[in-house]
Amino acid sequence: MSDPVQVRCRVNGTSMVLSGHPMARLLDVLREQLHLTGTREGCGEGECGACAVLVDGRLVNSCLFPLLHAEGTAITTIEGLEQGGRLHPVQEAFVAHGGAQCGICTPGMVLAAVALLAERPNPTADDIRVALAGNLCRCTGYIRIFESIVRAAQAQAGPA
Amino acid sequence: MRARLSDYSLRSAASLAEALELLAAEPGRWRPLAGGTDLMVVLESGSLQHREYLSLWNLDELRGIDVTEQEVVIGASTTYTDVLGHETLRAEFPLICQAAAETGGVATQNRGTLGGNIANASPAADTPPALIAYDAELDLVSTRGTRRVAYARFHTGYKEMDLRPDELIRAIRLPRPRGRWRQWYRKVGTRRAQAISKVCFAGRLKVSDGLAEDVRLGFASVAPTVVRAIHAEDSVRGRPLDAKSIAAARASLARDLSPIDDDRSTARYRLRIAGNLLEMFLTQGLEGDSNRQGWVST
After folding, report:
1. Which of A41, A133, A137, B118 has the fewest CB atoms within 10 Å distance of its CB?
2. Side-chain half-sphere exposure of B212, counting CA atoms within 13 A
3. Which of B119, B121, B153 shows the shortest CA–CA distance to B137?
4. Mutate to test the interface with B, among A51, A56, A64 (most CBs of B within 10 A)
5. Which residue among A22, A25, A49 places its CB closest to the CB of B105?
6. Rounded to whole angstroms, what are the CA distances from A98 to A110, A111, A112?
7. CA distance B154 to B142
């Protein structure tokens, strides 16, 4: 019924026009049109956070995000975090402290952590649990993920 | 994606006025879509019945929180995150903030809207019991003008509401509380975050000289709609908060609630827990201990 829409937005810093059905899931557009396959599909119903990306700096589940709503936004996926070939401090902390195992939840976890630290550079343990409550991991038991985020916060604060 | 996207359409309007014109031109053709946190789930599951949607996300007229001396007016497209960041709401309407904090995770709170939560009309929605506890009213707008309805009477049956096909919820109006009220919100589910409730409760109680001067009781997941427990309220209002009136209120719940067995819980468990929550709430009011977690007084 709908004609395709042309949506102007920025993805990982690059301006582009995305074309597709207005109700297409941002998740599918990112993976299939832009080949940004770091964004995962887990549950497809907003429960697991594997598809989380940042839209204008805010965490969203891209499986519940219609393409039409991307108009005029700046989207950051996991691929957009590294700068000049260097991983984001949160990514480095996940690598160094065992925050990732199978890797399916990791991009969403990392982006949820980046969104948290942007708002609260020194989060409490409770802040971290609340910020990650929508991101499910079936491997790590979460402890190493929480630890990675604490270490990333310390690293961002600079050498003690 | 289990749905065939080509069966569906989604469009936007340049302004609220244009959106209302569209709705008025062909009533029932376009249904509103706000943050999409529920409709996109149903779409993905392949069971989204209605085909044509009008996005409200870009309409600034439906956003924002205004505070006047008498009331707080929340635009229908205000997100849970916006609610949580608002000082007056945190200070005066803590049950709404607590409900917002317990709705999904951060990603859902960033997109889900209060108006969407209301119009989606789930009997298990998290914010409506709190809206009932605060005597919320809704502004419904169409090309014919605006009308105001009491939220406690808005839902008329399972997924049915006092909203015409050409109307949108424009705002939620909350009268600012006067005096000291004891307040409590409690969502009972399988998990603290993300889970849909088995029973959800929001209550407000004003006590003076040992009497329950006034009380509001809102419940979710225990009837075809979110409900105000009028009979239970009447059992304690104006009476001393003693074992007798509390037992009477608990017994009255059977008239206010009509829970069912479903994949989340059973009718028996729900009624029992609803009674327990009510008793905890009223007993706490009697003892006057506001230090327990989850209790707030203003």
Report:
1. A41
2. 28
3. B153
4. A64
5. A49
6. 13, 16, 17
7. 16
Q: What residue ranges of chain B have pLDDT lower than 50?
A: 288-295, 297-298
Contacting residues of A for B43, CB less than 8 Å apart: 23
CA–centroid distance for B91 within its chain: 18
Q: What is the DSSP letter of B298?
A: -
Chain A residues closer than 8 Å to B194 by CB = 47, 133-134
Tell me the sheet residues that pair with B150.
B137
Q: Mind telling me how many Å the CA of B46 is from chain A's nearest CA?
A: 12
> Rounded to a whole number, what is the largest CA-CA distance in chain A?
59
* Beta partners for residue B187, in sequence order: B200
For chain B, counts of helices (H) and of strands (E): 11, 15
CB within 8 Å of B257: residues ≥ 6 apart: B219, B222, B223, B227, B229, B270, B271, B274
Selecting from B55, B81, B108 the residue whose C-beta is nearest the C-beta of A69 gives B55
In the numeric block, which tokens belong to residue B104? 């999904």
Verdict on whether the full-model pTM lies above 0.80: yes
Query: What type of residue is A6?
Result: Q
Q: Chain B partners of A71 at a C-beta cutoff of 8 Å?
A: 58
Q: What pLDDT, on a 0 to 100 scale, did the predictor assign at position A157?
A: 87
Rounded Cα–Cα distance for residues B57 and B45 (Å): 22
Q: Two tokens at B134?
A: 């605060």
